[in-house]
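Case study.
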Amino acid sequence: MIESQEFQEPLVNTEQRILDAAKLLFVQKGMDGTKMQDIADSAKISRTSLHYYFRSKQKLFEAVFYDQFDRFLPRVTKIMEQEITFEARLGQFVDKYLDLFLANPYLPNFMMNELNRDPEKMIELFAGEGLFSKRVREQVEGELRLMNPSLEASHFILNLISLCVFPFIARPMVKAFLINGEKDAFSHFIRERRAIIVDTLMCSINDAK
Amino acid sequence: MIESQEFQEPLVNTEQRILDAAKLLFVQKGMDGTKMQDIADSAKISRTSLHYYFRSKQKLFEAVFYDQFDRFLPRVTKIMEQEITFEARLGQFVDKYLDLFLANPYLPNFMMNELNRDPEKMIELFAGEGLFSKRVREQVEGELRLMNPSLEASHFILNLISLCVFPFIARPMVKAFLINGEKDAFSHFIRERRAIIVDTLMCSINDAK
DNA sequence: TATATGTTTGACAGCTCTGTCAAACAGAAT
DNA sequence: ATTCTGTTTGACAGAGCTGTCAAACATATA
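After joint prediction, the assembly is written out as follows.
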């Protein structure tokens, strides 16, 4: 058997084209609102071919889901382990997530939809990961206690996540009302937020009231 | 014709029972994921009766939608017009929204789903209302400029909305990881947030860096 | 009692969606 | 040329969902 790989790619990998099309449609119209025909059309293949690649709609959805989910939990341990100030670590964390969402604008919505459709599945998947892991959580609690004992870690973490994630969830709203529709205005606006989020959170810590 | 009203209500108003059931299902499973049969079962009537009350699924959905939407835009002008400090007004605003969402826990998700399903419809409906109205917006801009000229109103408003709304959108997550599943823990947690949100936002203003 | 109005239901027609199959097609290996 | 593998497609069967209709039912009025 002669090894004759790398000959595929008609124009661009069909499987990836399907995943891209499916992701977009699943996010916009939901799992049930999206028909296999829609995905096939969008990927420029026949619906039967779609079934050839992903046997069923459920399987396709799961493929899209896990593909997205894996991106959602970048290892924060690297950030946590660094011997730098709390503020610097916070900055890195915010950076990482804003960049992630800018590169994958549909990720937050996708995750929130699933969270409400099937909370138990999502909670199980999230359990012990990232900010929800015991280790990270306890470290944040310890550091916060030193700086401002009256500020509960739960609220601080929720503030952090809210400020990072919500603008993407409400993106059409932000685009329409908070920025003036210039080209690339949204990503510019988000990059401005990096410093704003860090400042806001830091001063909520330092504000020993 | 003798006026013989108020004789209906078998046990409780059927129409309202339908709306309640439909709201819950539409939020959890989406418009397309919800079948008329599901709603009928949940409201304890036959599917045909459901059609009798709301001719079509679309009409039922719209009824639910506008019923929800109307709650979503409490008149903030009353708050804006009061001659009180900025902080006091901010507090009233946060109060009003947290109470609203506590009483209608599915509202934020419902609105965000629709925002992504049909952004133009939502933007049109929101335009000029509440925080997005020109009047309110300019007042906030003016007041902020006096206190901290380097803080843009867009970011401030987005921070405010993020901190108020996101915890409800991610509610299952908050319940699972940030509070320890006690009875009424969520609403208690949210009431704690009232002061935290106001403090956080105020100190982001005062922090003239 | 008879009649009118409002409500509920079972049955049906029509449509849409999914998933399968067998056949056609393309290209590489023999 | 033919054989084999992987890909694409049209056609079909089956299931589920919506919306309508006519008939039954309940209740109040005349």
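Observations recorded in class. Residues 144 and 153 of chain B are 7 Å apart (CA to CA). Residues 14, 45-49, 52-53 of chain B lie near DNA strand C (CB under 10 Å from a C1'). We will return to this complex in the next lecture.
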